[in-house]
């Protein structure tokens, strides 16, 4: 019978089983992180100082950049420490803190993308009442609500994980502390944890996805009724950047979490998680800068 204990620390295996990738990751990850910080800080800066960008759409975009900075900072510095020092250990307390904040920021970004889709829906389908329905107070309330929702979600997952018993070698086959790899390490009853994970993933994953799909169904129907091709092109162009980010984010997140535990493959999943945890936060400012006329005009 295995001993059930609370470990003092974990060993994050990361990509140690792929030594040929060590040099590549040591170069790519720091560059990606620097560009992520620079790009998102820049987006926040120009939205703050430029009066023409003081609109709901750019208010949400500024929050998206903030979430991207926080999300990558939750995992990348620890990952870089492991890459350059060769010591892959992380204390149990740090692991649980990292788990909480990563779930917090990943969930907040998904809900924010849904709020941004709702904003585009109101702007295109109900333009006459847009400024009334989506004023500064409404925007602030939406952001506050998503913060509270994701904080509750992160607290539940972290609390359930903290109470798990762990047996044997405390080696996490991942590059940061997340729910699936920690569940794979536990030797206790996982029925409650897996049920909560599935329910939360459906609510936090499929819920915003359905809201986004419905918003764009109404948007497409409204745009197709426009008489001018120039108006149609302008309406679609305001949504193109958001759709690109949505596909990158939800495609990788839903693949990682909305599955039964039996189908999890940590070796494969950690490659997929690189998309939404490291690559997507870097690409978001690029996508919005290159495809957004207002931002390019400000530049």
From TrEMBL:
It is a multi-pass membrane protein. Belongs to the G-protein coupled receptor 1 family. InterPro entries: GPCR_Rhodpsn (IPR000276), GPCR_Rhodpsn_7TM (IPR017452), Olfact_rcpt (IPR000725). Coiled coil: none annotated. The chain crosses the membrane at residues 23-46, 58-79, 99-118, 138-156, 196-219, 240-259, 271-290. Keywords: Cell membrane, G-protein coupled receptor, Membrane, Olfaction, Receptor, Sensory transduction, Transducer, Transmembrane, Transmembrane helix. This is Olfactory receptor. One of its GO terms (molecular function) is G protein-coupled receptor activity. It is found in: Cell membrane. GO terms for cellular component: plasma membrane. Residues 39-288 form the G-protein coupled receptors family 1 profile domain. Gene3D superfamilies: Rhodopsin 7-helix transmembrane proteins. It comes from Apteryx owenii (Little spotted kiwi).
């Amino acid at each position: 019978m295995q001993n059930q204990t609370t470990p003092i620390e974990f060993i994050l295996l990361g990509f140690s089983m792929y030594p040929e990738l060590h040099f590549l990751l040591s170069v790519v990850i720091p560059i990606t992180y620097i560009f992520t910080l620079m790009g998102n800080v820049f987006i926040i800066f120009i939205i703050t100082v430029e009066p023409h960008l003081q609109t709901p759409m750019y208010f949400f975009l500024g929050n998206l950049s903030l979430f991207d900075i926080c999300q990558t900072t939750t995992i990348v510095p620890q990952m870089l420490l492991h890459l350059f020092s060769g010591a892959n250990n992380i204390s149990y307390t740090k692991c649980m803190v990292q788990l909480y904040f990563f779930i917090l920021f990943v969930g907040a970004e998904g809900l924010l993308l849904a709020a941004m889709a709702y904003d585009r829906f109101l702007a295109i389908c109900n333009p006459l009442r847009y400024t009334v329905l989506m004023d500064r107070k409404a925007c602030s309330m939406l952001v506050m609500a998503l913060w509270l929702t994701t904080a509750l979600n992160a607290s539940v997952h972290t609390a359930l994980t903290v109470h798990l018993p762990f047996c044997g070698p405390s080696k996490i086959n991942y590059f940061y502390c997340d729910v699936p790899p920690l569940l794979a390490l536990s030797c206790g009853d996982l029925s409650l944890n897996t049920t909560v994970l599935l329910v939360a993933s459906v609510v936090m994953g499929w819920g915003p996805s359905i809201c986004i799909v419905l918003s764009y169904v109404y948007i497409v129907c409204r745009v197709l009724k426009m008489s001018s091709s120039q108006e149609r092109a302008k309406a679609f162009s305001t949504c193109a950047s958001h759709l690109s980010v949505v596909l990158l984010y939800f495609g990788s997140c839903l693949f990682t979490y909305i599955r039964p535990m039996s189908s999890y493959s940590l070796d494969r999943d950690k490659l997929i998680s690189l998309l939404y945890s490291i690559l997507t936060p870097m690409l978001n400012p690029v996508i919005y800068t290159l495809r957004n006329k207002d931002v390019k005009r400000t530049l």
